[in-house]
């Protein structure tokens, strides 16, 4: 993440919006290309290396079989791509200026195939400690190689060379580590006839369909936008996407903390426990992602120019359009994780296909007339529909992610907290100061309203703080014990009256902030 946080704005500033747009388009095209090239092979090597079979030299045969397929598929795809470029199909589809880049992507696909194969093989050999470090090495090697090349004036080609060098380094290191455990000379060994070739070849075919549908959600808007608008619009739109997708860090962390493999629960038909886990994860994801989304929206005018530079100012409006959809996609991610553990993938694929189809249709309708704003609106609807479709799909397999999630209360807390957060962002006219003050203020206000609306129990925030080291942890623990068991529901008479009371408080606080310190009518002491 650190490497990505550093590299994205540097690339945008060095390449400019147009160059960054070309680079983003090529990466989106390459991502879909690699899904077809890999065809589930890399996931299969992890799965079957982890399984024990009675056949002698099982691991050697698996390593050799999948390595042969990986190289064969990558070479065949590269040949087809190069022939398509030489025949003029690439120029007809995307423009003559991309023909040279596509040649490079065809060769890059071979290197990336070997890199991905080595990482998955290491994981299958119980060497995850090396597999995960290869990902880190890849990201930092890219920054070390690509940024200087781009700064020296090599442009998009320099960024792609950095990508290739980083992938090559990781492929060589990864294959070397695999060779230490299982000799790569096994690629020349022909397995016996009873070796389950068809099982290994067709493994994970359904999962490949799901991955391709998800990838289309991530990349089809960028590819289609390039067809109808100039590269600068693609670059600004991709900058907006990167900031909106940063919200997905929240569900990843929450799933890491709360989630566990639900496969065993599914095998025992323990639907109540799965539903409870899904509801808890949905509620916590909404709580933390919503406050992050509101804060990002309030600070969009400050964040975008500071992060990507003044040339990225056109990305502000697409970012505001993308934030609601990114929030919906964040809510869908843990539901998708739980549903896929059920095993059949029928309903997760169906739900994702509906969202992906809606996304493609809306992008096709809106991009020609409205450019990156149309792409942002289409994508936010497609992203948001993921949550709706996956909740419906989860219910079909016996799980209700909204049962006990307190969704209505969380939405009320978000709406109430948004007003003072936007008010403070308006008052603090210095962008650096707003980045310092608004996020902690927004989190505090949001937690207060979450408690007052009964979204969370009063002890829950202190429960999180109690796990921290000195000086917060020891001081939060006594408060948590005193509040434990206190009902978090509202005590004011009636839900409607309670909402009116809380709305009055938030409007009063916001009005005082704007009247006293507003940049137009007050004394801008925060400016």
TrEMBL record:
Keywords: Cell membrane, Cell shape, Membrane, Peptidoglycan synthesis, Transmembrane, Transmembrane helix
InterPro entries for the chain: MurJ, Poly_Biosynth_Transport, Polysacc_synth
GO biological process: regulation of cell shape
Source taxon at top rank: Archaea
Pfam families to which the protein is assigned, alphabetical: MurJ, Polysacc_synt
Localization in the cell: Cell membrane
UniProt topology in membrane: Multi-pass membrane protein
Transmembrane regions: 27-45, 65-84, 90-115, 136-154, 160-179, 200-219, 239-258, 286-307, 319-336, 348-367, 373-394, 406-426, 432-452, 490-517
Gene Ontology CC entries for this record: plasma membrane
Name the record gives this protein: Polysaccharide biosynthesis protein
